[in-house]
Amino acid sequence: xxxxxxxxxxxxxxxxxxxxxxxxxxxxxxxxxxxxxxxxxxxxxxxxxxxxxxxxxxxxxxxxxxxxxxxxxxxxxxxxxxxxxxxxxxxxxxxxxxxxxxxxxxxxxxxxxxxxxxxxxxxxxxxxxxxxxxxxxxxxxxxxxxxxxxxxxxxxxxxxxxxxxxxxxxxxxxxxxxxxxxxxxxxxxxxxxxxxxxxxxxxxxxxxxxxxxxxxxxxxxxxxxxxxxxxxxxxxxxxxxxxxxxxxxxxxxxxxxxxxxxxxxxxxxxxxxxxxxxxxxxxxxxxxxxxxxxxxxxxxxxxxxxxxxxxxxxxxxxxxxxxxxxxxxxxxxxxxxxxxxxxxxxxxxxxxxxxxxxxxxxxxxxxxxxxxxxxxxxxxxxxxxxxxxxxxxxxxxxxxxxxxxxx
Length: 407
What we know:
Elements: H1 19-28, E1 51-57, E2 66-73, E3 82-92, H2 94-100, H3 105-112, E4 131-139, E5 151-155, E6 167-171, E7 175-177, H4 184-187, H5 191-204, E8 216-220, H6 225-236, E9 240-245, H7 250-255, E10 260-263, H8 269-274, E11 281-284, H9 290-294, E12 305-308, H10 313-320, H11 322-341, E13 346-349, H12 356-367, E14 375-380, H13 384-393, E15 399-403
Parallel strand pairs: 8-9, 8-11, 9-10, 11-12, 12-13, 14-15
Antiparallel strand pairs: 1-2, 3-4, 3-6, 3-15, 4-5, 5-7
Helix pairs in contact: 5-6, 5-12, 10-11
């Protein structure tokens, strides 16, 4: 049995304690008070740290709801499989913009509070940010694979407090050792898009290192974070990749290895794609009107799949409530899947899913030079509102990174 848990170095001024009481506790448990093999000793100081710097929102809205504070609640490890990470860098994703605006609130609040015990608005003050690269400061009792001081990266689920802060608490299955060849600023650009790409192309589309050399892949709207990451994974696995983007991103996608890059504004992109050899998998990062014709570019009756990242699930739950929203979502996906199955192709929705083991795979690919982060701009922590505005303006060419600690 262990003595009381040690407070890590991330707590600069931990709690004082009574040495006599601690020795008596160890004696009661038949432990040698000086045997560090069995006792994890307290650190001593005058007070326990309870706050940290962070960017928070207190309500949903536009950029003016972002507020910097030095008094954000300090995160704590609640479960034995959690770790506390000191954030060195984070990055922005479109989901941060939509969450700031209140999109997905109903479903995310149900995930945060399944029994609906807490009052409305209990998610505030809310810390946004889904990507993190940093250093582990403290580990839960069940953690053996990681230790304090390890450099890690992770993608944080949207129902948890985010990474635009000094510290964040994560589950061990959400983190992975950071690639050795990347700085924290570089590494922070990849986790969320990498986990999304893995969920969509591996878990949903069924692609793997073994079957990719035989596949033709089309990525629609490929110049953003997910698209640039997907191109690199597919090329690392030997697939033939066609990508669409605007003219000023064509050279970027070619340098990432795409076999064919098409400017969607040049001529009729629909006609051009239909004139090419048909595809085994289509990843649609655009949605909208694209969905109406893109499935015609798939090989019929061959197991070909169309996967879109643009789904009505969160919109339905926001508009109709969780029960009716899920029902409407089920009807929509069922109807579309059946309609296209009758034409010999599979229709799927793709979602982000936190996945530490997937990040392990990406870490190996990064370290051997087959995947690299695509960073458009780096902002300092104090410039977070400007970073939000940039991403909200659209037409990204890779990721927008937030440097919290240089390096």
